[in-house]
User: Fold Ribosomal protein S18 acetylase RimI-like enzyme from Roseateles saccharophilus.
Amino acid sequence: MTAASALRDLGFADVDALLVLYRHLNAGDAPPPPEAARAVFGHPGLRHFGLFDGEALIASCNLAVIPNLTRGGRSYGVIENVVTHADHRGRGHGQAVIRHAIAQAWAAGAYKVVLTTSRKDPAVWAFYESCGFDSGDKRAFVIRRPAV
Assistant:
């Protein structure tokens, strides 16, 4: 991370920049309607973090802190949509936003943080392990809604 970098919570004013950054995550995704974006940023327990180089949003992830009735009622965190602009990869920006999200989960009382990826690249898996995640701790299963 450079001295000119700033890491902060994202808000409604950052939606357009975040949607542009998401093109580096899933290039074919259609943007959501504006009301959906407002609903996402207004959802309690869901935070988006962004790393800026000057005015440019170059890395982001989101964190959901989910209430829980096990583990003594302690919540857990889920990190999703980790993305770094292709021109800024390999410089620690992704790690910075993930480490920030983890710190925020711990501050919210979460007892664990879960992250899943659909990437099959072992280098991506090694990246998440370098952030402290253990790929052997749990197994994730995914089901997707059938097309209607």
